[in-house]
Every structure is written in structure tokens, then in C-alpha cells.
Specification:
4 copies of one chain form a homotetramer. Chain A is globular, with a radius of gyration of 21 Å. Chain A is α+β, with helices and mostly antiparallel strands and 364 residues long. A 5-stranded antiparallel sheet of chain A has the order 1-2-3-7-4, with helices on one face. Chain A contains 8 helices and 18 strands. In chain A, helix 1 crosses helix 8. Chain A has one domain: Chorismate synthase AroC (Chorismate synthase, AroC fold), CATH 3.60.150.10. The two termini of chain A are 31 Å apart. In chain A, 26% of the residues lie in helices and 23% in strands. The longest helix of chain A has 22 residues. Chains C and D meet through helix 2, helix 6, strand 11, helix 7 and strand 12 of C and helix 2, helix 6, strand 11, helix 7 and strand 12 of D.
């Protein structure tokens, strides 16, 4: 399969950027979970393009219509399907580049994979637009997590050299995670926001783009959930996070920083606090042996700069097999990272609900 | 599930560190693939403990016995099962720590996950020893890849601040990948080896341990293999790589480096060389939209320092719920990275064979 | 999971009888397959209610809208999603029975399974209406099979003691399978049709219902496809056929008839005809060891009488836990078998495409 | 995949009839389940060849060695692997038939499927011998079911026209199910046993074989377990039962008998007994809409006559493509049905544990 995740729940994404509609089917959700549609909308609005110069000017309403699986405000437990009809399509913009490979895009690899039958308009199924139903799925899962006392959240950790503060890996709270969600530009520090906006705007003015890092956390997740080896929390989270286009790396806890550390520095000593086992530090990012430790789950995902830049680039027409100069038109985010924040959160939410449902104990 | 990977092939790992045996079942392998058992043994020897002070002194023969799936030197296409009987067990060494959580180990999380029924001796199923059958599976898959003209390899990129050269992401060759496999300490540069050995030995003398980074590559992998979204090459590779205990991060191509780059720097321009579409640079690590581009596949995995250090550590007895000082005994690698190199390669081999078999075209 | 099939292809069904819409997502289809939408419509029309007294008078247009996965008349290879909006809903008819269990229906078991949160209107996700997207999926798969020279078809073998002829298990042809599809009442013999219609009408007049058997066949399916043990053709076909509500049995080739036979009678001797290995008889139904033999695939599925009968029945209100008399209203088929014929065919089509794609050789 | 079942638990079977060993890996079992190895042995002894003329004279000890997953008598929750080494191999017996297709066997289809690379000795992976690890897995699952108050059992319902009594579908008890397990020839009626033995012996003397039907039941299984559509109890049970070689049909409750019934006859009316909802009759076989109703689960599986008969048969050498007379030697059961009884039970046990673990509520 390709666009279907199967674990404790099943998530089937579908759609192409300029097709009739995009959406998702969620199977195996627990029944009777109250879903607040307004808050689903708020979650998705965080991913929607902004009018502040940081993102594309394409304006999709992106209001998902729920076709099944919700009855009298609660999940039925049978498949929940949601569809977003595409309305604001400017397919014309893409007419002239259909066989010239856009660098860092999947035009060429998609052409090979699907023998030239895939929908090339706007990236087709490779479009970042498919993260809209991913966010819908993540928003539904987020509410299910909340019913268990679990809160997730994410922020922009860095963009092109400008760094935000880190979440405190030991003491990050649900309140902090909620607070950053309410910010139009999700950084922990307001100073960082200003600098990052400047970097993004400068890149846009310069017909360029920039990359960055998103940091994501979960608090309240119970200890003892997950599995060793191939279905651990790290395995599942990373598998889903890499479904977000432009992600090129993921690390948990100290991550790549581990490479420069001694065991005596990196090991998190256990202690008892309020009758509960905790660790004094949280270099392990809340996961040991694929299983949650009860400490906050912390990970970071690296995003490449938006591939679509408006400068001329050298490329190849892969049908005529000739070298060509490419001029990309259309509307593009100079930086995907601000809009990627809820996507990373959505990926985590899906992974955590899946892990909870695979566990033999967490149940109604 | 937990210790079972299901894709184009199925890999079911089993075993506990101090149980009767460990092993793996590989299902859905192509039939008729010639398997050279001596070279399987050579692959596994690269993972086996060394007598050079960099690893544990536990000496396991680790010769897998193949029970099924191989007939007259070729895969039958029906399940291939291999078993390694445990012979050199010093369970006594672990007697006194069974309920005091070793920091950075899965003792406490495993206790919670399995309600105190899991085998605690030597880490049980969480033991790094389960990477032996993973390597067996990877060695078998590596030979299947070779039959398709694909070569994979890995080296130690860094240990505690000492860095090896990188693979040349555009020009790395099969010969280079084979060469580093033949080295007793798998670095590209011999100078690096000396420095790294010193760092590891110093840590060992200091009753400490160190982490590091493994870089891994594949050349000859055909373009157009993989899928967008949830079953892309990055999703599958990362899912399997995180099955290796101690991995805390993974990145493809430029990975986390993307965060500090402009699109104009990171985008790899396409060109034509010898009638083939290639990219001039390979910041994308050979994967675009989850699908291979035909360029070398390049990724890096970060390993935490070995959790088992011989210094006293503060911890908790999670059965009596009391704080305790912990003294770890037993035999432990001061750095897992050298032995992790073939494990990372094995994970890649499994992922690539799986992806090839899921593709609708690669076939006999 | 529950409403999602994962094999060589993935099929995710969704929807409730009286919800907004029903549909299906097909993932991992081969790309570039030409799909004729008119013929999809013709396939689905065979399942639609008839105005001849044999079925419910509910009239759904059941025209599926394809949202993704089809571009310029061909499959893109990325997920194909189709939605049927519900338009002719008479939910009121069901108001008074919501907590009185209709015998032989899933009201009570669904109530328990979903803790009273499932949509009870018209059976919700348990409704036979969900076979409409199943037929859509089967119709798409049927066209993919045709491109490989494979034809499937089915007919009513028996209804309440009235038996049609059997397919000739050795000599059934694609033409015969096509012919029976064109008949408004799919029997091989026209005489049988008259008798069966009488039995159904008599049951309807008597406020009763009747069951029956559907026989299904595939010709042109290549030999050597399938697998032993758990993913054989019989395993896959039976798993999908039991997704059709009201199926209570399935048998391949001689099926239950085997119980009364000697090996010397049941064994199909091999011979050579036109340079090809065939069997002289086809008691094995085209499948040996889970793998196709090249002979026609033949199986039969047993359907129970429609549970909804308009006679008073004794039952239980499972919320108040009181015994109650039940009077079912609404529109119901006195016999589901005629409309089930394309459903069984659809199940076979999905199973065969899945098996072809799981095989290591059948490819573009 | 082929020999791997993935649901609430994962079952990976492996081995070839004349290879080194056969076995199974069970993943995702609940931890802490006490397993009585003597009773596992007793279960497997029911499948082992008998010395009473009804089965092959091959004598395998078939004592499984457990390599992992069991610690201090309890499941660890990590993969449970069991191996049976092959000891009594007479490969010579099969030497002369390796390329002449045995009618009703998978020699020819296996040859095609695996391109002549599969192990042909004694049927290789297609051998009925692989039901030994299936029975091991079923025996383990049976003990897990018992811990939940669930009992399963099966008996020979018919052999070549001789019929045993049916289980009483409403009132069958755990005691009756246990009783039939203790009988050397598992029929409900002792008279039937004598007649069936005569039929089998007559077939053996006549160098022939006979088929039959096994009836299987579960009592104590909680109501509300299972799912509609593709992962219902019928789907899962049938998928696993068809893994038993020689099964050609399965039916639940009234099964094929439904075809001749009126709805008014087949519908099971609900009533209340001892404060519990039950049905007065059990034509539905304990499953409605894929979900358990709380009534006994009842199904029947049809077995074809043993393909290996000692009479000359016409066949084809599929390598030389010539017609040949075939004389089968070796040791073969004249009827597989008596030994198939525990296999069917094992399949049910695996299916029921899997369904329990997929349910969101049944947990420790």
C-alpha cells in the first residue's frame, strides 16, 4: 500500500491537488468519542495558508464534510470518512512545466513510478495539500487523546539559523502546548517570531525559500505503551511523520546530539516524585525500548526549504530527454514550516491513538 | 504486532537474550535466489563482539541454523527460518538488578508494558542481541539486492566528536561500499579509526560509554521504486532502523542540515549524463516524494551512548518503589556504533527488498 | 481494522445506510489502467434495486462520484476514491425499532460492539447498502482483470429449492459469463428464472423471505498465482465474500460434496491439451494448495433469507431489557440473492487483482 | 505474505515436510498467561498419526521446543517461538514422483508459483505436516481462551455418508466439548465411530481415500466481539481454516442449508433468560454482522478425500511435458478428517484470540 497506515487504527488518505476532492477514511476508531467540529476546524485553520506573506495565496476553504462515522456528535466506531472538495484550482499555472522536472519535487520520480499515468497538476497526490486530510485525521485523534488526559503540541524550533527556545523536556505542560497553538505564528518566544518572519520575507523577496525544524511534544501520555523492535513509538511516529512532504529527518530526545555525549551525561537517572517513578532529566524523549516512560514525549522533524522557488533553474524535460531551463509559476510558500507545525502534531496524534489501541490494556 | 515487519516481505524476529534461542522467519522472499552461507557468516561476523576492547567480551558463535526455506542453495520462496541457539549465557550477572531500573534501558518500561511477565535476564527481548537475527535477515536481503546490481554499505561517521569523511553523495561507488565492509573498524579514513578507538578506550577506562553516527548508502537502486505518503522509502527505512536499540534519530540526504539552507542551495538540479537523468548534487539523498531517484540513497542514524556503564548510578527499584543506588555488572560495549554498522545496513537491505517486491514491475 | 482489506491492493469501505454518503478508497491499484465509467455504471445497476417485485422499492441512483485516482480516463496509481451520496433516505421508517433487536440482524451485536454509539438507522454500517461501494471496487478490478484476459461472472444457482444448472467446471467460457451478466435475472436457464421469480413473489405475498446460493467463476486466470497456507486464493476470496451481509457459507470446487466422495472420484487427473497442462475434471475448483491451476476458478456462496420480514416476530428491547413484539416496516428485498450476484463477483474481482499484485511476476 | 496471519496476534508458520525443522512464531500474545506444556502436548497428540489404521504410519514425536516467549511458565508478551525438528524423514519414497504432478496435490501449482525452486520432498511447505505448528499455536491460544472462560471443541460430523449427531447449537456445553476431545476417535456417538472406522478401513484396503466434515464450536465467548464487513468473525475464521490443507468449504450456523429456508424459519427470535439476551434457536451460528451474539459459535469445514491414493493414476510430468502414469508410494492417511479435528479447533482458537485482542475492551 502507499497512502494507508494500518496499526491500532487505519488511516486511508486520498486525493490529488487539482482533482475533484481530497479526504481520508479513519477505521477502527473507538466508538462514542465526542468530536467537536469547531475545534477540528480550528486545528485545520492552523494549517491553512495565511495572508501574512509567509505562505501561498491560494485560498482553500478546506472545510471537511463528514460523510460517515459520526452520529449525534460522537464517533460510531465504524469508518469515519471526510471529504474536502477542491474549489480554488488554477491548473493553468502548471501547464508549462508538466514534463520538466521541478528540482526537489517528485515530478520525475512520480513519472517513473506511475509510468506517466499519475496526475501531474500541482504535484497530484504528492502535493502538500494532502496534509489537509492528514490534519483532519490528526485533529480527530487529538480529541480522543484529550479524553484520556493527553495533550500534544508543536512549535517552530528553527528557521534558517534563527532558533526558538526548546520545550523544557522535563517540565513542559499542557498549558504551554495549548498556548503555542493559539499563536498565529507558533513560536515559544515572540522575539523569535519577528526574526523568523523577516528571514522568510527576505527569502520570498529574493525568490527563494528556507527550511527549518519543528519540535513536538506530548504530555500526559501513560507509561508502558508501545512495543520493542518494529512497532515501537519511535518506529510508528517516524513512519507517519515522513508522510509529510519535505520532512528529511527526525530525532527523539537528544537525537543526533547523542553522538557527542558520554553515557554518564545521556543516561536519565530514575527517581520517585509524588509516588511516581520519573526521570530527573529527559534525554530519552519519553521513549525507552519503543515504550513510553511517562515522561513527556519529545521529538523534532527537519523540513527542507520549499522546492518551488521562482528563480530560473536548470532541469530536464524527462519526456523529450532534453536539458531545459525551468521557470516555476504559481503560488508557493516561501517556507512550509509554520504550516507544517499542525501537520507534525497530527502525525503524532495518529501515532499515539494507534499505539493506545494496540495496547492490551487501555480501553473503555 | 511488535517484532514483525510486513511489507513486500515479512520479517518476524524472536528471542530473548538469555532464553534458549533467537531467530527470524522471512516470508514472501522471491524463490530461486542463490544464497551464499559463507558470506552470510561474514556479514554476521561484522556484528559479533570484537576482541579489540571496543565491545563486550561475551563470545557468542552466533552461527544461524537454517531450518526451512533454503533448498539446494536457493530460496524456496516459502518461509525461511533461521535459529541461533544461545550458548554463552551468564545470567547470574544480572541477578541483582532485576528490579532496579537501569537508566536509559527498557527495564522499567518493559516491566510496565508486560506487567512484570517479560524475561528480565539481560534485557530479554529488548537486548541488542536480537540484532543478530536482524543482521541475518539483512544479509539474505543483501544478496538478493546484489542479484539486481544493488550494493549497500555503511561506515562510522562520528563518535563523540571525532568525524570520519562523508560518503560522496553523488559519486559513491559499490567498490567503496565493499571496501569499508572489509575493514575491522569501519571508517572511510584510517586516521579517524585511530582517534575513535582512543575515544572509545578512554571511555571504557573511565567506566563510561560514547555515542555516534552511522552513515549508510545504496548504489545501483533503480529509479521509480517507492510510494508517496505512508509507504515511501523514508517511511520504511526509518521504521526498520528504529528497531535497532539505541537509535535516536535518522536523516536522509541533507537531513537536519536543511534547516539552515535556502531552496536555491538545497534543490538538486537535474541534468542528463550518458543518456540518463541524474541530479548534479544529491541533497535529497536519492529519495524524492518517497520514491527513488536513481541517485545514491544516503541516510544517517544517530546512536546514543551505551546505557550500561559501570559507574554507580542513582535509580529506583520499581517493585519496592524505593530509590536505590545501582551498580551494573556484566560485559558491555563502551560504544555500540562499530557493531551497529552492519545492523543499519541490514535494516536498509530489508527495506529495499521490501520496496522492490511491493513495486508492480520489478520481477523475475 | 474492520472495513479495510489489505493485500496486493487496499480497499477501505465506509458509510452508513442513512448517513450523508458511502464510498470506498482503493489504494495500490496499478497505474495506467483504462477505466470505462459506463461499464462501471452497468455493473452497479445489476446490484441496484429492481422494479420487478424481487427487491426493495427504495430507489437510489447510486452513481458514484470519483474524487481522485482517475486522470484522463486512466488510473493514476494513487488512491482512487469514490463517493455515493445518500439521497433517498426514509429514516422515519426505522424510528420505532431502534432498540428492539430485529432477528438475524446485527442490531443487538452492533449495540454491544459499539456501546450504543453506532448509527442504528437502517442498519447503519451493517446495511447491505455498503455493498454498493464494494461493487464499485469490484467493477474497477473487473476491468483490470479484463486487461489481462481474465473474465469473471456469477449466477443464481438456487433459491429455496429451485436449482439452476451449474457452470461446466471444465468448459465454462468467458462468453457464457458475459451472457448471464446481461440477463435481468441472472440464471443460466430461463425456465429456472420463472420458477424462482414465483418462489420469491410467493414469499413476498406471504410477508416472508427466501435464501439461496450464488455460483461464481473466473476464466483466463493464469496458473501459479496465490500462496500456500494463509494467503491462498481460497483464504482471500472467502475473507472478502464474507464481507457481503447474509453470506453464511462458501465452498470451492466440489466443496461440501467432497465429504461423500472417494479420492479416486475427487482427484482430478492431469493431462496435456494444446501443449498446456490441464485437468480432465475440475473438482478442485481451479485452486490447489491455495494456488491457481489454470482451470476455471469455481466457488459457491450461501445466502440466508432476508432477515427483514413483515410478519410480527418476538424479540427483545435490549435497552429496557424487556421482551417485545416486533413489527418491521420499511422496504426490503424478499430475497437478496439476485442483487447479491454482482456482489459476489465484485468480491472475487478484488481478491484476484490483489493476488495478481502480490505475485512476484505479473507486472507491466 | 503467505504463511503469516496478522490480526490481534501474528502467527508466522514455517517449515517443509522433509527440511530440518518446522515451527511457528506467535507475536503480540498477552503477557502473563500461564501455559501448561503437558496439555499443549496432549492437544498435539490428537493431531499426531494414530496406530489404528486410520492414518499414516509415519511416526513423528512432534514435541515442540519453545525457544522464546515463555518465562517461568508464563507468556512474556514478546514473540513466542516453537520449533519441531524433523526426525523421521523417508525422503527416498518421494524420489520418483518429483516432477509428475500428484492429482489434487500442489506439486504442479507449487512448481509454477515458485519457478521450480520450492522443496518438492513430501510436498515441502504444502505438506499437512505444517499443521503441527498450527496446532501448537492453537493449543496456546486455547489456554488463553480458557482463562477467559471460553471453551472450544470439534468432532467428526461425517465421513463418506456416515453422519454423527450435530452439536446442539443452543445447548452445547463446555463439558461436551471437553469430552469429545478425550475420545481417541472424536465423534459424539460411539456407534458412528464404528461405522466410520469401517468406511476408512475399507477405503484403505481398496487403495482409496475418503473425505468428510468437521463441526466446531465455541462456548463462553462473550457477545459483542468482532466487526462488520472485512474483519468479522466469519472472515477471520474462514481465512485461517482454509490454511488447513484439504479444506474446500466452510459454513456457519445453517450455512448452505439457508438456501432452502424461509426467513420465518431461519430468523432466530430473541428472548431473555436469566437476565441475559439470548436467541431461542441458533441458526446464525453465534455470529450476526460479523460480531458474536453470545450464543455458541458453530461452523463446519468440508475436507476433500486424501489426494494420495496408492492406485495408479494418469498424470503429467510437468518438466518433460509428457503424460505419465503415476504410482504414489509412501505413507498416507486414508482419511485426514480424524486428525483434522484439532486443526480446525486450532484455527478457531487463533481466530478468537485475535478477535478478542482487536476488540477495544477485553483486556487485563
Amino acid at each position: 500500500m502507499s497512502s494507508c497506515f494500518n496499526g491500532g487504527i487505519t488511516v486511508s488518505l486520498f486525493g490529488e491537488s487539482h482533482g475533484k476532492g481530497i479526504g481520508v477514511v479513519l477505521d477502527n476508531l473507538p466508538s462514542g468519542e465526542i468530536i467537536d467540529l469547531e475545534r477540528i476546524g480550528a486545528f485545520m485553520a492552523r494549517r491553512a495558508p495565511k495572508k501574512d506573506g509567509t505562505s501561498t495565496t491560494r485560498s482553500e476553504k478546506d472545510i471537511p464534510e463528514i460523510l460517515s462515522g459520526l452520529y449525534e456528535g460522537k464517533t460510531t466506531g465504524t469508518p469515519l470518512a471526510a471529504v474536502i472538495m477542491n474549489t480554488d484550482q488554477h491548473s493553468g499555472d502548471y501547464g508549462n512545466i508538466s514534463h520538466i522536472a521541478r528540482p526537489a519535487h517528485a515530478d520525475y520520480t512520480g513519472f517513473l513510478r506511475y509510468d506517466d499515468a499519475n496526475d501531474p497538476r500541482g504535484g497530484g497526490h504528492f502535493s502538500g495539500r494532502i496534509t489537509a486530510p492528514l490534519c483532519f485525521a490528526g485533529a480527530v485523534c487529538g480529541q480522543i487523546l484529550e479524553h484520556q488526559g493527553i495533550t500534544t503540541g508543536a512549535h517552530i524550533l528553527s528557521i534558517k539559523g534563527i532558533s526558538d527556545e526548546h520545550f523544557d523536556p522535563v517540565n513542559v505542560t499542557a498549558e504551554q502546548l495549548e498556548l503555542v497553538k493559539s499563536r498565529p505564528f507558533p513560536t515559544l518566544s515572540e522575539f523569535t517570531e519577528t526574526e523568523m518572519r523577516e528571514v522568510i520575507n527576505a527569502a520570498r523577496m529574493d525568490l527563494n525559500s528556507v527550511g527549518g525544524i519543528v519540535e513536538c511534544a506530548a504530555v500526559g501520555f501513560p507509561a508502558g505503551i508501545g512495543s520493542p523492535m518494529l512497532d515501537g513509538l519511535e518506529n510508528i511516529i517516524s513512519r507517519i511523520v515522513f508522510a509529510i512532504p519535505a520532512v528529511k529527518g527526525i530525532e527523539f530526545g537528544n537525537g543526533f546530539g547523542c553522538a557527542d555525549m558520554f553515557g554518564s551525561e545521556n543516561n536519565d537517572e530514575f527517581t520517585i516524585k509524588d509516588g511516581k517513578v520519573i526521570t530527573k532529566t529527559n534525554n530519552h524523549g519519553g521513549i525507552l525500548g519503543g515504550i513510553s516512560s511517562g515522561m513527556p514525549i519529545i521529538f523534532r522533524a527537519a523540513f527542507k526549504p520549499t522546492p518551488s522557488i521562482l528563480r530560473p533553474q536548470n532541469s530536464v524535460d524527462f519526456k523529450s530527454m532534453t536539458e531545459q531551463e525551468l521557470i516555476i509559476k504559481g503560488r508557493h510558500d516561501p517556507c512550509v514550516v509554520p504550516r507544517a507545525v499542525p501537520c507534525v502534531e497530527a502525525a503524532l496524534n495518529i501515532a499515539l491513538v494507534s499505539a493506545l489501541l494496540e495496547d492490551p490494556r487501555i480501553r473503555r
